[in-house]
Design goal:
Layout: H1 7-51, H2 60-66, H3 69-99, H4 104-109, H5 111-121, H6 124-140, H7 146-167, H8 170-190, E1 195-198, E2 201-204, H9 207-223, H10 225-234
Antiparallel strand pairs: 1-2
Length: 238
């Protein structure tokens, strides 16, 4: 005897199964994002916050674990490296050259090098402002869940905001100090054979020359504390 299949009964039996499959699918997708977010939070807390400006490049495996959050990490990396490169290419050389000036003759010997490096230093502020504006735009567009938002903002403040705000006043202060050093070199060069050096002391012919030289050196003394601040910035200490 032929046995027929009741289509209504099959439909009623299949419905719970399909519903279960949909629930399982949605749950799996949700877990993936949750795992990526958890991995990113862990990475921010245990790697980013302890690395300063030396943020590591993500491995392919790490990119897979972080998912789309790898792009948010890249915002931090990009700014950090742009700022570090700018400091190494402009502020660092000025600090190094100033460090080479130990005796009065060095003002003349380092004059041309320092004058050239000043031109590059004067562009650093705009470079950092541009890099920060790009990072701020990307940061503002991020839509993080509450458990991630606070931690990422803290990392952003550590890697982007504080270093940028910390370095900006140092740049013109160091430029002003370096310019004063260049002017001392200019002055000594202009004196020609009327200036001599004896036991690391400057010997000038007239009291007017001595007074002007001493005034310039006194001005340098009031500005030289910026050199220590700039040295710390080169080391990534803001």
């Amino acid at each position: 005897m032929a046995v027929g299949i009741n289509s209504r009964r099959v439909a009623r039996w299949m419905a719970p199964l399909l519903a279960l499959m949909v629930v399982l699918q949605l749950t799996a997708c949700g877990d993936k994002e949750g795992d990526e977010r958890k991995a990113f939070i862990d990475y921010l807390q245990n790697t980013v916050m302890r690395s300063g400006q030396n943020l590591p490049t993500l491995s392919e495996d790490q990119k897979q674990k972080l998912g789309n959050y790898a792009n948010d990490y890249q915002v931090l990396v990009t700014f950090s490296r742009q700022m570090k490169q700018g400091i190494n290419n402009s502020l660092g050389p000025v600090v190094n050259t100033l460090g080479q000036i130990r005796v009065p003759q060095d003002y003349m010997q380092q004059h041309d090098t320092l004058a050239q490096e000043l031109g590059t230093l004067n562009m650093l502020g705009q470079q950092i402002q541009t890099a920060k504006a790009q990072a701020d735009t990307a940061h503002a567009a991020m839509k993080h869940p509450d458990d991630l938002k606070g931690i990422y903002n803290q990392a952003y403040d550590t890697i982007v905001t504080r270093p940028a705000n910390g370095i900006m006043p140092v740049i013109p202060a160091l430029a002003g100090f370096a310019q004063s050093v260049v002017q001392v070199g200019d002055y000594l060069i202009q004196q020609g054979n009327q200036v001599t050096f004896d036991n690391n002391q400057v010997q000038l012919q007239t009291q007017q020359q001595v007074t002007q030289y001493n005034t310039m050196m006194s001005e340098l003394t009031t500005k030289q504390s910026v050199l220590l601040t700039a040295q710390k910035a080169v080391l990534g200490q803001f």
